[in-house]
Every structure is written in structure tokens, then in C-alpha cells.
Amino acid sequence: MDLTQVFKNNEKWIADKLALDSHYFDNLAKGQQPEVLYIGCSDSRVTAEEIMGAEAGEVFVHRNIANMVISIDLNVMSVINYAINHLEVKTVVVCGHYYCGGVKAAMIQEDLGFLNPWLRNIRDVYRLHKNVLNAIEDEDEKYNKLVELNVQEQCVNLIKTAAVQKAYRDRGLRVHGWVFDMKTGKLIDLEIDFPKILANIMDIYSLM
To answer: What is the fold, at CATH topology level, of the domain defined by 32-205?
Structure first.
């Protein structure tokens, strides 16, 4: 990427926006009221706003390797609490994607140094669903299934947090799990049963 071109692109973007709405940037500077918190992967091929068709200000975004929600990761936990408690988003989405490098790395029995602690959280997802995954003979199919199960477990991790539990109780916050299919460009709703999961784990994880 030619970085000098970035600034030319920026000037064109500004001109395009102002041509449609002369007050676009004045309105943008007034503040944000996104209704959705999107937790996705850092993969350069998966840009949240673009695949959702969203405009600036509509989605609050956090991205990390393999779209993880880890309770001791202060970054993601700060984002979650700010989005829910201060921005009062109505929906939280965890979005994974097929052919995720982080998930693939977790399937390899190899010392990856500094990445090991992070990837262990994905390996824990594999351990939880080992019987299902080991029954799949095709490696690509197994890989894609782990991507889906990882999204599911990160949704469960969201539901374990006090911020999500309180917002669900007080104003009906929802949690959704999606997967982006790069080969088709489609977003797939995994239809995570948020109320059912919440009911099943509340005897252990209730913080209310």
C-alpha cells in the first residue's frame, strides 16, 4: 500500500461525503449513538462496517485475533462495558469468519510462543466440543465447525458478564453470533439461543 495514496483517498472520501450532505462532518462530530456492538476478528479481509453495509456512527467495533471474549482481557472488557453501560447499545454481535488464521493456528500442535496463551482459549473451545469435532473427518469441515463453535462460546462468555446480564434484565439487550463466509460474502446467523443459554448458566454465573 502506498501511504501517500491514503491521503489522496481521504480527500476524495471527504469530497464524496460533502457532495451528498454538506453537514456530514458537523453531524459526525456531535457524538455517537450506535445501536450495535460488533466484536470481530482482526483479519484484514473482514471489515465490520463494509460487510454490514453500515455507516460511520452506527456500529461500535472491537476486533482481536479470532473474535475472542476473554474475561481477563481488559481491552475487550472495557469496550463491552463502555458500549453497554454508556452508549447503551441494544445488541451485541460476535462475528467470526471461515478460514480464520487464529482458529487454524489453535488446531496445530505447535509452540507459537507469545500467541500460546491467547490460542489456548480457542483450544479450550475445542476441548469442550471434542466429541463433535473429532467425529468430523473432513479437515476443512472440522475447521469451519470450530469457527462456529468458537463464536458460540464467545457469546456464552459475553452472557457471563455483569454488564450483559444487567442490560438484558433492565432493557432487553440481545446477543447474536454470526459467521462471515469469505467465499460467498454472506453473513450467517448462527441463531444463538440467548435466553436459553442464559437460563442454563445462571445458577453458576449469575452476578445479579
So the answer is: Beta-carbonic Anhydrase; Chain A (3.40.1050)
